[in-house]
């Protein structure tokens, strides 16, 4: 019995390998030289600073792409996978750790990745939620170097209230949005592409300037696509001649407040925002707003 089943297994494997090997060697045509180079470039990410509010943050020069998502959408995992750095944005089993706007330089300080506070963590006083909501809105509406928003949504729960709010802010200033349907490994291919089509159709109706993809930090699905989109928004070229010295970017304490400028900008925002959005904030930001410990 044992012997015969071993035999049939051998017979099977001896017929199989040739085709399988040639299939595995095929290169995915979506993985271009640019994507590979972009991915390598993004691995240069280094923590720059953590800002408690927009008025105390990296000078608004150059190019930025910001990551946003509800708490637990997979934002920290995505940033870590993209930059190939386990601790860059601390992926946490406990939702609600990200509390500030975190800036990362990408080889030089005028090309940046920004990690925005997550939403959805309920254990935060209502007043703090409103403060953070306002800060987020401020950042999204007024930040001139912001070239695009990467909005992460768990593929099983897309387009929640927070997501729609972010999309409306993006629309109000014609900001490009790249949507990641995260944890795509949780669904089979059929159901996953169905969600992809449905969300795509909603975003079209919202008249957004957007792109969308499936993404999984777990099995690295969609990393190259994300890297290409980001690099494109950040003006990365294969030569990437932007030589910029980190030392030229002033420390947070040297920066003048941008608050007056922000008040002067006349942006017509028509956003219908309920106040019950769960902003993901820990309350250990001190009163003066000078706590700049990175937390993700
Ligand atoms: N299956 C699966 N789980 C993921 C993936 N990305 C993140 N997670 C899990 O989802 C939870 C929240 O992830 P995290 O990156 O901390 O989310 P964040 O709150 O948006 O920063 C963690 O338990 C992760 O291990 C993924 O691609 N696939
Ligand atoms: Mg996180």
The radius of gyration is 22 Å
| Form type | globular
Give the CATH superfamily: P-loop containing nucleotide triphosphate hydrolases
Structural class: alpha/beta
Note the total helix count. 9
- Please report which band the strand proportion falls in: under 5%, 5-15%, 15-25%, 25-35%, 35-45% or over 45%: 15-25%
Distance between the termini: 56 Å
Domain EngB-type G: 61-236
GO molecular function, one term: metal ion binding
Keywords: Cell cycle, Cell division, GTP-binding, Magnesium, Metal-binding, Nucleotide-binding, Septation
Biased composition (Basic residues): 1-10
What does this structure look like?
Belongs to the TRAFAC class TrmE-Era-EngA-EngB-Septin-like GTPase superfamily. EngB GTPase family. It comes from Acinetobacter shaoyimingii. GO terms for molecular function: GTP binding; metal ion binding. Keywords: Cell cycle, Cell division, GTP-binding, Magnesium, Metal-binding, Nucleotide-binding, Septation. Its cofactor is Mg(2+). The model is unreliable at 1-25 and 249-296 (pLDDT under 50). 35% of the residues lie in helices and 15% in strands. α3 crosses α8. β6 (177-182), α7 and β7 (210-214) form a beta-alpha-beta unit. The protein has nine helices and seven strands, in the order αααββαββαβαβαβαα. With 296 residues, the chain is α/β, with parallel strands linked by helices. It has helices spanning 2-15, 17-24, 33-42, 75-83, 126-142, 161-172, 189-205, 223-233, 259-264; strands spanning 45-51, 63-69, 101-106, 111-115, 146-154, 177-182, 210-214. The chain has one domain: 3-Layer(aba) Sandwich (Rossmann fold). The protein has a seven-stranded mixed beta sheet with strand order 1-3-4-2-5-6-7, with helices on both faces. The chain is globular. Residues 75-76, 92, 97-98, 118, 296 line the site of magnesium ion.
């Amino acid at each position: 019995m044992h012997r015969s089943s071993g035999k049939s297994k051998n017979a099977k494997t001896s017929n199989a390998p040739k085709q399988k090997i040639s299939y595995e060697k095929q290169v995915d045509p979506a993985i271009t030289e640019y994507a590979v180079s972009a991915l390598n470039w993004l691995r240069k990410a280094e923590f720059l600073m953590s800002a408690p509010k927009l008025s105390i943050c990296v000078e608004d020069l150059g190019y930025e792409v910001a990551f946003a998502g509800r708490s637990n959408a997979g934002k920290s995992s995505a940033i870590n996978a993209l930059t190939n750095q386990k601790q860059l944005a601390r992926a946490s089993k406990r939702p609600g750790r990200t509390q500030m706007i975190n800036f990362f330089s990408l080889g030089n300080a005028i090309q940046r990745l920004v990690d925005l506070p997550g939403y959805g963590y309920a254990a935060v006083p209502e007043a703090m939620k409103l403060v953070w909501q306002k800060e987020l809105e401020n950042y999204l509406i007024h930040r001139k170097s912001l070239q695009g928003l990467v909005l992460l949504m768990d593929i099983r729960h897309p387009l929640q209230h927070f997501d729609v709010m972010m999309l409306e802010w993006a629309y109000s200033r014609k900001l490009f949005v790249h949507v990641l349907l995260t944890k795509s490994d949780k669904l089979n291919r059929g159901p996953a592409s169905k969600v992809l089509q449905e969300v795509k159709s909603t975003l079209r109706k919202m008249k957004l300037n957007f792109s969308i993809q499936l993404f999984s930090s777990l099995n690295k699905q969609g990393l190259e696509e994300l890297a290409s989109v980001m690099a494109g928004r950040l003006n990365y070229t294969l030569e990437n001649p932007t030589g910029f010295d980190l030392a030229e970017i002033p420390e947070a304490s040297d920066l003048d407040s941008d608050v007056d400028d922000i008040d002067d900008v006349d942006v017509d925002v028509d956003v219908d925002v309920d106040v019950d959005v769960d902003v993901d904030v820990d309350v250990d930001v001190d009163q003066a707003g000078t706590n700049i410990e990175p937390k993700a």
